[in-house]
Amino acid sequence: ELYFKNLSKQKQKEVMEKNGSNHKLRVCVATCNRADYSKLAPIMFGIKAEPQFFELDVVVLGSHLIDDYGNTYRMIEQDDFDIHTRLHTIVRGEDEAAMVESVGLALVKLPDVLNRLKPDIMIVHGDRFDALALATSAALMNIRILHIEGGEVSGTIDDSIRHAITKLAHYHVCCTRSAEQHLIAMCEDHDRILLAGCPSYDKLLSAKNKDYMSIICMWLGEDVKPRDYIVALQHPVTTDIKHSIKMFELTLDALISFNKRTLVLFPNVDAGDKEMVRVMRKKGIEHHPNFRAVKHVPFDQFIQLVAHAGCMIGNSSCGVREVGAFGTPVINLGTRQTGRETGENVLHVRDADTQDKILHALQLQFGKQYPCSKIYGDGNAVPRILKFLKSIDLEEPLQKKFCFPPVKDNISQDIDHILETQSALAVDLGGTNLRVAIVSMKGEIVKKYTQLNPKTYEDRLELILKMCVEAASEAVNLNCRILGVGISTGGRVNPREGIVLHSTKLIQEWSCVDLRTPISDALHLPVWVDNDGNCAALAERKFGHGKGVENFVTLITGTGIGGGIIHQHELIHGSSFCAAELGHIVVSLDGPECLCGSQGCIEAYASGIALQREAKKLHDEDVLLVEGMSMKKEEVVSAAHLIQAAKLGNAKADSILRTAGTALGLGVVNILHTMNPSLVILSGVLASHYVNAVKDVIHRQALSSAKTVDVVVSNLADPALLGAASLVLDYTTRRTY
Hints:
The chain is an alpha/beta fold and 737 residues long.
């Protein structure tokens, strides 16, 4: 790692020497509208903060300079940036021809500006028709182009424009692994691609806790509360204008029927935008008591509005990208964002013939709170981009090189990304210890932290947060990119909400506890929570004997008895999240009392607590110890002493173990006759002592059709932590395609 860091520093030093020790990189940032400025502004602030390396020229064009869209160039001036040139490039019109003419007008005006500025590099963002004019002008004038957010997939003409700019650009900054892979598949030079994340996330992830009530009151009224209003932002789809206008009408009808205070923003400058404004006015939106219609909201304030909204609705990329950072519910309408990577907070309504479908979506989504998603960034994009800019060698040939197949995997310019490992934070909430680990995608425990579990709820939650924050910070030094947090805990868990409903007696004061929200808010990461038995089954499915097996059951044999059931490759939770409480299968009507209050449960016979209870009885009768055994006076009798006595020939201890093994075996037979799995995995410290007894009971008691089941002992060293990590890694693998 030190070698690579030194190599990177040496390369930067060589680049500075080549470019001239006093030469500053002259960067031209061209912004066309309010949306792209929200992504470019963090980069502009970063460039401005390092005047020893960069000179910044700002060019403003497009809808920034149109009164109908709020004259948004003023927010650039308010951010204290000097605007070098203003170019009026929008041709008024309501059809596709107006967009073409606007591109042509920009192409006519830009050469003179670029001749005067003579930038070393131009930064172009996104997929708008204005950006295509900028990239075309710069490419034809032999100016290097850095394209932000290339490689992404959405819908409409935007895809074609974005990919066209990619082919013109010399350097690429992308936001997701999928986008990086798309750029590589498009034969772009691997060394000129940087996976940095979205620059706007640098501001988003630090914004939610700021004062927001005054902003809500200013835009929506003093009587509006957080999570009790809607933000609507919908643009025309230029490849199907008529249908997108119809969808907008249905959206407004649904919002009127839903009867919640709604902030409606005017659409982008696109073919069809005027018609959408006419629809708003026809329905009286600007004068309706439940609606506030505005042309523009400053980005800092817009962040606060969507962060605390009950829902966002429309087809803006902001909904599927930035809003996920806050876990705000989103309803994405139509095809404009088809193909975008989204978090679980996004509900898609691809098509709608009536308002009913949209209204139903509002009823499903409004007021929910989802885990914070960091698909599009981790808050460190700008430092990576500035480092990337400093590494550009102006002496290198300007002509692009294309890397045709075969294609390398996951290679980017930034050495930190080459070395990074996608990982999860795994938390095991045990009866005695609280453990947190960084676990890699391959199941390697990179680093583990262990603390005694505090007795009170407040202390326990405080320690979890402290350990998670410490582990997340250490992950940066270990070059591990944390995708999320998985928590394994005893008791009954609602995994959909991340709430522990009822815990075991081993963990007191731990009922109806929301673990997801405080941890997600503190780390800005998605959080998953599940029962420890279910986590053990997930660990086996991803890393152990259950890999590739369609139907199997995992039984944990430890302090208690638990387990998890995988049916058709999916974990079963049950209607009230009580599935796979395998330790409480009754195998005798008059057996010993269980901690659950019943009698004759497997746990009452075969758990560590049950064996310890029987060992104490033998010890009290002075028949536990045999030749070869000794105990210190203060030593506590445990299940381990019973097992040792049985191995050394103690007949009573051996009988207790055989009874425990038989009880466990009968429970497994019941499972076979109910679920018919092809594999049973015994996990935990007692598994190896029970496996032969379980096989014998199956041979004697099971139906012939169920006897073919395989019974194995788990080979996983730490199924609880690996299972907690699987909650994160399995979801991430499915989401990223």
